Sequence to fold (248 residues):
Amino acid sequence: MIKAVLIDDEPLARSIVLEYLDNYKEIEVAAECNDGFEGAKAIMQYQPDLIFLDIQMPKLNGFEMLELLDHQPTVIFTTAFDEYAIKAFEKHAIDYLLKPISQARFDQAMAKFLDQQRLKSQTQQEQTKKMLADLSPQQNLERIVVKTGSKIKVVPVNSIFCIEADDDYVRLHTKEGVFLKNRTMAFFEKELDPNIFIRIHRSYIVRIDSITRLEPFEKDSHIAILTNQMRVNVSKSGYARLKQVLDI
Fold:
């Protein structure tokens, strides 16, 4: 039996998908969810093979929810996104369904999914990760979703003092504490507003206005003292960038 989870804040949209799934006896709907928080919990609990996922939802959108998953099921988007976004999804998602969804279009998407299930020709987890990387936000990040144990927390970017490299993760040093995120330093360097954050070392990105002073440290390096009392290494190239930004 193939397990599926429906994640959409519109009850009517979920009911249409349920109706169409009646024709697929091999599919069992394990859960219906109203938002990304419920969706992430259901996926962790039921480990579905397939999810029908809306993008624009309250609390947590579809992209943010997918970031929380360690093992990602196959995704069929059910979305009201415009034509240009849909063309982007088409490259990597198994399929998309533009609302209002027709039976014929739904069947076409299911045929793709069932073919892939039978052939086992592609790794859907890697495919979805590639899609997320390609569809990273065009605007600067405003919030970051993290997991703390079994809880989900939304961290506002404006609360971050410093981002520190930690193997395959980064540490977000914030006003509320320190949080781990499974992302690279290169990702944050690209997505954060360069007028607000600056990379001063291969292991550190800092909020510019959190720097209270700079102190010399060993040869060709410095230490930045932040408003939260952190002492952060500044490389030679990082110091050059800071001098330009701070006009010193």
